[in-house]
Specification:
- The protein is an alpha+beta fold.
- It has 31 helices and 23 strands.
- Strands 16-23-22-19-20-21 form a 6-stranded mixed β-sheet, covered by helices on one side. A 5-stranded mixed β-sheet has the order 13-12-11-14-15, covered by helices on one side. A 4-stranded mixed β-sheet has the order 4-1-7-8.
- α21 packs across α23 and α22 packs across α23.
- The N terminus is likely disordered.
């Protein structure tokens, strides 16, 4: 029992965090730790991290300067090899004093560190109690509860109490996974666990982003997932396991970090031919990957390529060398005797405890598949008289289908050198043709090895074949990526795979990725790179659409010069592609869109004569002429002084709410040109305006509803909570929108006019609810956008529910799209619902004014 406690004490404790602890207003701050150790023996100090190998020595009297942006746990290992957990905060000063075998703490976090040492997370089990029994489980739970109770009443800072309470819990959870496993490995004793032993572990949803601050937490998560596989809670799949793991992690940031760490661990274990599949699964599983994620993924891919270059002779498809070994009785066996069978080689040696722990799993697997076309080899790398004696002792009583052989020369043998074996256990799989399938296969205790072998036996491919589903998912990943660099990285990696596998079916997806990437490059101002990609496309409807959509995005972002150039190319290409042809139905639909928007950007750039032929082409092919098209057509006609033709268009604009100063002046100009003077114009104009008002009243009467408005409480840009319940007695205008929604942003000038009109009316409130977005820096993006456009909106954030993946406020209002506006009366009832934007600022403003007045 004492031996087990020593093991558990030295196992790295994992922190189970719950919130970020950062220094106010800072990123990284200098944190100092001074080691005042009165000893001539070595002492060590390092982070509690699964990435740190060995120990980092520090010198007595040394002051170590760290750069921290959050609270962190470290280890101090004293001169007697005792471990002390040290809690550091950004900008703090800590002194660790060791004198006559006693370790004490001074400095900013002294009280905390003294408390930690006095309240260890390692719970000593009574000698008479069986480890990992039901009694032990209950004892641990009670002990943890007592530690938490004492912590809550310690009087220490609340932030520390918050994260350290989870530290205690995680230390307990870590024992659940590693305790029985350690007993099995180091004592060769399989423990029968009580029912529900892992219930406390299974409660975790991994929904807390604070996990990101404690890297060793990911080792625990990986252990949990593999345990679930062994217990049948997660179906094992040797290629798709990361996708399956990801579904059990609800927080997107945690999921991304865990998957990256998993790829890192896969590479640390050795070369994997299936790494591109794992990488693709990770990319698909992460929504809205940020630049850090993309760059880390690229670094991992580079490491994979280095390993591939290093292990060129043992990658999949290479011929495996023949080998021979001797059994405990000295009889020689050769692999040539098993040609035509799948061969599984298990390299190990008798001094390796993890190797011996895997033997029962390998024997069980071999026994299960003994009637199939497969041969298992247990290949000992023991050498020397003492180790050979130990090996013979271990295998002399073994019977079964596994061949127990020793490889002469051990680690120095040609076979071990060929496969680059420096550590064990190591599993190698060879197919029926004598070719290597996997030189770094999983251990027998991992159910994924069994699944991989069954696929081989059943003739299923274990290669990296691209599927239509994978292509679609990758395309969606490009769509979700926030920056052009992220989109480009995903696209280039995918194109490389498509070319390698000659997957012609995937090229439509490649085209879509190209479109999204080029569009993003133009929007970000990377025109040279965007042009380079665009020039690779042959002249076609697809290239026309890419240029047009890119120009439309630039237009939306007020880059009128780039928009004009791209839309001009799209317009000219449209004419050229359709020259002398009968227009298809699809092209008939695109003419008013392509030429109408090109005319719009030309007019915005004051190039009215150039816009004339394009607005006519748009008008000629349009079945529904919207406000913008009519406005632009009127602009051209007035410029050309074609007053008779312009008059009915201007009349229609004013009848539909477009009674802005420009339209009124143009109508007056046309009226005088045709009548000879302005007599009767005001009466004529009033009649047109009255037509709009009458139509508006009739429309509003039909649109009026009475439904109870769902209540909500949301945070705004200033982190203030705004609740609908608190606005009872006021008329509330809700505007659901998103930064990626062009019509939403196009309607904002009108909404600003409407909000300004009612600014002094305390009974009217405008709330702009941002929804359908999950960007990490969303508040910063929205704040910048509002500042740049001088909007003084009260913006609230409808954040995604991590469990349902829905946006609760938008969901409760049953909005069918955005922009969506809801007008709520003083009693808290929805009276009007509006979806979309007509393009007319004046019409929108007048409509909102009329609705509000009806409810006052």
């Amino acid at each position: 029992m004492k031996y087990i406690l020593i093991i558990l004490t030295t196992i790295a404790l994992v922190i189970f965090p719950c919130q970020r602890i950062t220094a106010s207003g800072s990123t990284n701050q200098k944190t100092t730790v001074t080691f005042n150790a009165h000893t001539d023996k070595k002492v060590f100090f390092q982070p509690e991290s699964d990435l740190v190998k060995g120990y980092e020595e520090v010198k007595p009297g040394q002051t170590l300067t760290l750069s921290l942006d959050k609270a962190a746990y470290y280890y101090y290992v004293d001169s007697r090899s005792r471990f002390y957990t040290v809690f550091l905060t950004p900008g703090s000063k800590t002194e660790i004093i060791e004198n006559n075998g006693q370790v004490t703490f001074e400095g900013d976090n002294a009280a905390i560190n003294r408390y930690i040492q006095a309240h260890s997370s390692v719970i000593t089990t009574p000698k008479e109690m069986a480890l990992y029994s039901q009694e032990w489980l209950e004892y641990q739970r009670k002990a943890i509860d007592q530690l938490l109770k004492e912590l809550r009443t310690s009087g220490l800072p609340e932030e520390f109490i918050h994260i350290h309470s989870m530290y205690y819990q995680c230390s307990y959870l870590y024992q659940l996974i590693n305790g029985p496993q350690s007993m099995h490995i180091f004592l060769n004793k399989a423990q029968e666990l009580p029912a529900g032993f892992y219930d406390d572990l299974k409660k975790n949803k991994y929904d807390n982003p604070a996990i990101l601050y404690y890297p060793k937490w990911f080792t625990l998560m990986r252990g949990d997932m593999e345990l679930r596989e062994k217990q049948g809670d997660i179906p094992p799949h040797h290629l798709n396991f990361l996708t399956q793991y990801a579904t059990h992690i609800s927080n997107e940031e945690v999921k991304a970090a865990f998957l990256l760490r998993s790829l890192d661990q896969i590479l640390a274990a050795g070369y994997s031919e299936d790494f591109p599949i794992y990488q693709s699964a990770v990319r698909k599983a992460v929504n809205n990957p940020d630049s850090t994620f993309i760059s880390q993924l690229a670094e991992l891919e580079a490491r994979y390529n280095e390993l591939r270059s290093k292990y060129t002779t043992i990658t999949r498809g290479n011929p495996a060398p023949t080998f021979s070994g001797v059994d405990a009785d000295g009889q020689t066996y050769s692999s040539t005797n098993y040609t035509g069978k799948i061969m599984v080689l298990d390299f190990w040696f008798s001094g390796c405890m993890p190797c011996k722990a895997e033997i029962p799993y390998m024997e069980k697997l071999a026994d299960e598949l003994k009637d199939r076309n497969i041969q298992f080899f247990s290949l000992s790398l023991d050498s020397g008289e003492q180790l050979m004696k130990a090996w013979k002792s271990l295998v002399k009583e073994k019977i079964g289908p596994t061949l127990q052989l020793n490889i002469p020369g051990g680690f120095q043998s040609e076979l071990a050198k060929y496969f680059g074996i420096r550590s064990v256990p190591r599993i190698v799989i060879i197919d029926q043709q004598g070719k290597i399938v996997d030189a770094f296969a999983r251990r027998p205790s991992d159910p994924k090895l069994r699944q991989q072998l069954l696929e081989l036996l059943d003739g299923k491919s274990t290669g990296t074949a691209l599927t239509k589903e994978e292509a679609t998912q990758t395309m969606m990943a490009v769509s979700r990526a926030e920056t052009a660099a992220q989109k480009e990285e995903i696209m280039r990696s995918f194109i490389k795979k498509v070319q390698q596998e000659k997957a012609d079916f995937a090229y439509p997806m490649v085209n879509m990725m190209m479109s999204l990437t080029v569009e993003a490059l133009y929007v970000e101002g990377q025109t040279e790179k965007a042009d380079k990609y665009a020039n690779q496309l042959k002249e076609s409807e697809f290239k026309r659409d890419v240029l047009f959509m890119s120009g439309a995005k630039c237009f939306e972002n007020n880059d009128l010069a780039t928009a004009e150039r791209l839309m001009g190319e799209a317009a000219q290409m449209t004419l050229k592609l359709n020259e002398g042809k009968t227009l298809t139905k699809e092209e008939i639909q695109k003419y008013p869109v392509v030429f109408g928007m090109y005319a719009d950007v030309l007019i915005k750039n004051k190039h009215i004569p150039e816009a004339a032929p394009y607005i006519r082409l748009a008008n000629e092919h349009a079945t529904n002429r919207d406000f913008t098209m009519n406005q632009n057509y009127a602009t051209v006609l007035i410029y050309e002084k074609k007053y008779e033709e312009a008059t009915p268009i201007l009349e229609e604009l004013i009848k539909n709410g477009g009674s802005n100063t420009q339209n009124i002046n143009w109508l007056k100009e046309a009226y005088v040109a045709q009548k000879g003077n302005e007599k009767g114009f005001e009466k004529y104009l009033d009649k047109l305006k009255n037509t709009f008002q009458e139509q508006l009243k009739a429309k509003l009467a039909q649109k009026m509803v009475e439904e109870t408005a769902p209540v909500f409480s949301l945070k705004n840009l200033n982190n203030e909570t705004v609740s609908l319940e608190s606005l009872k007695g006021k008329i509330v205008i809700l505007d659901f929108w998103a930064t990626w929604c062009g019509p939403c942003k196009a309607s904002f000038p009108a909404m600003q006019k409407a909000a300004s009109y009612f600014a002094k009316d305390n009974d009217v409130v405008f709330l702009f609810i941002n929804t359908l977005e999950s960007k990490k820096n969303l508040k910063e993006i929205v704040s910048k956008y509002m500042t740049e456009h001088q909007y003084d909106f009260n913006v609230l954030f409808d954040t995604q529910d991590t469990a349902t993946k829905k946006y609760p406020v938008m969901e409760s209002y049953k909005a069918k799209g955005i922009p969506a506006k809801f007008i709520i009366d003083k009693a808290g009832n929805i009276r009007f619902k509006l979806v979309g934007f007509s393009g007319s600022e004046d019409e929108t403003v007048e409509e909102i004014k009329a609705m509000v007045k009806l409810l006052q």
